[in-house]
Amino acid sequence: MPGKIKVKVLAGRNLPVMDRASDTTDAFVEIKFGSITHKTDVCRKSLNPHWNSTEWYRFEVDESELQDEPLQLRLMDHDTYSANDAIGKVVISLAPLLAREANNAKSTATPHGGAVMSGWIPVFDTMHGIRGELNVIVKVELFSDFNKYKTSSCGVQFFHCPMIPPGYRATSIHGFVEELVVNDDPEYQWIDKIRTPRASNEARQVAFIKLSNQVQRLVGLKAAELGANAVVGYQQDFDLEGEAGVVARAIGTAVSITPLPMPSQTLNMPPCTQQSERDRDRRDDKSDKDRGSPRHARHESYGGREPAQAAHAQNSSLNATSTPLGIHRRSSDSDLSVTPKGGSLNTSAGNVGSGGGAILRPSMNSNNLDMLEYPFLTMTEYPPGFIVHIGGTVCARSVKLADGGEGAARAAWWAELRTELRAHARALRCNAVIAYTENTAICEDVCVLSASGTAVVINLDCDFNAEPEPNSAPASSVSKHGEESDSESCSMSHVPYSPGAGPYRAELAVCGGCRRARVPTVLLATCSKPNKLASHAKAVTLTAVAARVRRAPPTSEPGARDISDQLPFLEYELHKLLLAKLRMQGANAIFSLQTQIAIGERCVMALATGTACRLAALPPPTPPRIKASENDKDALEIQKALWDSFAANRVANGFDVGVTEHNTNGALPEMEGEDAPALDLCADKDACVLELDEAEDVETARALAKRHVNMQVYTHGLKPVVGAPPQAFAQVWRGRLSLGGGGGSACVERHVRRALDGVAYKLRRLQPAALTAPRFQLELPEDEIQLIVSGAAIPLQDPNSPEGNTVENGHPSSHSSHGSHGSHGNGTGDADDDIFELDEEQLVKSPPELPEEKNSINGQVPSAVSLSPLAHVSGSRVSRRLCALRLLFVRETTAVRELGGLSGFLHTFTCEVMAIVRAYTAALGGNALTSFYITQLMLQDNAHKNQGQCLLSVGGDIVHITY
Amino acid sequence: MYTEVDVFVSNYTLIDPEIYQLWIEGCSSSEAVSTLHQRGFAKQHGATVELIASDVLDHYRTFALLERLLTVPSKLSEQMIFQIDDATKQMLIEKYYDLDDAVIRELLGRKLSSRHRKDLDEVAERSGAPLRCCRRQFDNVRRVFKAVEEMPGNVVANIRTTFLLSEPLAKKYGAVVFIACMRFETAKRKLTYLTFNDFYHCAQAIMSSWTYSCTGPEYYDTEMDREFLLELRELRILLDKEKEHKHLICMRLRPKLLEKSYQELELNFRLYTRALVGLACNLHRGRELRSLFIDLLERCVEPLRLGSWPKTDLAQFLCAYEQCALQMDVLREADLKSVWERYMRVISQCLLTMYHV
Question: Compositionally biased, Polar residues: which spans (chain A) (predicted)?
């Protein structure tokens, strides 16, 4: 009996009136876990009931059940004569508690209270939204279990944080872990026809939560088998395949981490000495024994779970198991010399309509696996020195028909894609793929699976512990590392392959930093910009949309084949547009690039978003030129317009200044010197950027010439106001899709534009502020188009006002005593230096001061919870990283009009979900949620029935921050 | 353009004071958009009308959701749905409960029942405020009235703690509630020249001097001090000593008043003193108390106006009238000095307020 749950329900408040006659409610709570149910007494005639029993409701459960099953509290209204009415529910996943409990058990040194969740949690009803709050206490006690064949993974911590979490030290990175679970969607079961919408929604919500817990447990198990104690960069997705069921997918990176000593956090860490490989091995082995996890024994079965990979696993098992750090490049020279075959793109799949389009299109060269099964890492930020060279974005897609098959079939689909991607990376002479993500787009039974990442050469022997603290993390670190070598700052951008041996004909140039090595003219990467890479300070959000009309019936094989045929063209167009836009901004690199495919019934679209910046090492982009016949008046005009806006953008972005502030040696090539080329049209095909062959191209060119001013993108160089929390937001827009020219791409382009403008306008009161890289979700439900933008705005110090004032005036919550800290720190120049200084100062002044005390002294509203899509909360320090939180909500209404239309419905629901997220965060002891995400899985409406339904999935890492 | 969904939600609820003000004023969303557009929002922020509209709609949806909470302001601080800092919360409440003098003047004396909610068109027409705005104020007044009507203790303090309002605003509501409780006649045609502010000052004076407020928390300060009103009857003896009273006043005022006013006083003293004392004697009757303002107008203000008294002289007269009576033996003997002071403090204040020149 490995776990005990104790629950206490103290009180409720603000309950709805359930008894019209007396205007009160007779409330009681059913506490359910698995098949066991407890009930509280009925608290008669009160909207703010107190259940005075001091009794704990106990559940003794099996460990796997502990992880999978959620604790369900159902608030009911007692009726003597009729059936009791449901008021709402509180569904609590125990995973966050289990992770903490397990950790507390292991390290007695960390004194933060037991695994307790305590506080007011909103009672949520799927038909009415929030209906009051319950004050509950939930405790979990785990018994140590050394069973070798355990099915749980309580000890593994999960972080959505896309890097080694600040505050922790990584001892080793074990590699990629993934899992996939398929289940029936309760919405599509026969019983749904006869049960109430409420019962159906609740069944669905619980089923999804269980699925989510299950997939997390399995990922944890795999990580434990690898000898890891945490999964970082954890991503979980649901694919709603309709009648075929629902697929929960999760990927992450298994790592071994140890928390750093409390007060100093990462900031003042002494540089750790590098340990020898043997040392690490020994420690890992030891820890394996401690944990009793039979890693070696289980590894075969890990591979064996997916039949397709059995062979690979055997190949790799030796290497992979003997060195936990073992992403070693073992490829022989013969590997490298294999000539790329241009036409063999689709070899990986003999399946229906597999389209292996990719932005970079290296071909398969070998199936030899010489590393871990998949050398993929889901993190996007790494310690300096980890990334040696960046090869570029790699991407693989395939089109499948969802037929309600088993999980194994889907696992095989993904395995194919991963294999293909690995091959792409290898063709770029890279030994790993970082910032790896997986996506699906589904329309009826056709789905497009995408896997993408950035191929890089990594060095696993680097010092993991020199993690960049995100706050400080300076683009200006060049100056710090200046002594090491100048090439240090640019080597990351050097191509990992020799000019002749590249997998495809790439344009290469001489590196602007060291003037020796080769660099690509343009760099696309899915990871965030490594801090070491010298660049101009300013970054710009870049978006590009391509669309194509579907030519076949949308479903089944013809539909899938059509999509498969169109994908390469779509991607080509997208890529072309993206590069053109990049050039128009005067930038030469895109980081945090996300590409997504959306399939509608009539068209298919691709949306790419990223952060464009100008790297010092890469050659400056030349002004765009147009290819057209000599005497075309229009073309000349457009050319002129393009040049004008190119120049204007460059100035606006500050890219016209030759020497970057970070580049101390001034070794940049003189780009000032370049004269604007004479205004002529280019006839030479190679040098031209745009061809004006078709009417669409002219449109595109015109659109490119239009300038847009975006909100500033948040980069590490910017100075956020100390104590001012980020403003996380979600914007949903849905409208009718007009399939104009280019399958509606112009229309979508406009909406994307408008969405960004809208965000900037709506956050106008926060100015000056910068935007974290916004996340776009594009969907094409029926005849409509839906665009969701989520992100956060970070208030910045006003550069125009004296620094001291900014802090005081900047935000009501920033306390004056802090203001002095902040202004002092920020007055001194480089961002990283301040943080160090600030921290030291605090340490010297007040070493015994506990963060909690400080917080209360500062008079900050204890209930205020910040949400941040970044791994940290700007202007603050993370004092404790508690656990990952993932919640899922189903909401339905039969009164759409009364709620103010679908907008009103969604507005209410989103507000409520954010409120519940905050409540959970506070109840689990945090005051901020980092790596926050909000994903809308579905929004349906039926105008005739006045009915609407929506699914939202949210989550992040709960942390405790101090300002 | 056809838009089905356009929603922007942020973690810290965004409240634009300017848009909130427009909502408070009862503007529809389209009116608000055009107002903002005219104010040059488009140029200032480089936003299109479409964006302004989308932003206004976001705000209006938030306000609609907030409105439920604003009816019970204590819930606003307890609720978890919107994350709003305290200063903004205070602003939201304060503005929501804000009273328009013109509107509230029209609402004074009306029955605060939901039946009358329908008849607010007239109020809207006469005050010039949009109907929506009148409804909000009507509902607010009704809610405040219902909440504190039966509550013991100081009415202003009760309003402050129940509705979390600022002192000045709570005082306004206190006056409105008091006038409603007393059912003072305020809507007569003759009284329309009085503004809400006039009634506010009069009500303040009455509340501070004539109610139980000074005697303890178990009493209601929305209730008249019955004993005091009954004692007022005794003041009739002043009329018997009219000559003496007049003499003392004339002595005192001769050097201070304008000649014209003094003449007037000598001539009409009897009229005035009968009106003032007569009023006092009848106040214990409910009907007389309710028609206090109309009586003051008809019996004092109108004759004074005929005599075209300057306001300063009136103040002098009232002061002397009170003081001189105190010097007389009758009041001392009958132990009525404090009653007289209490009575005259209010009457002087009311007359001076109501006497618009």
Answer: 263-275, 312-324, 798-808
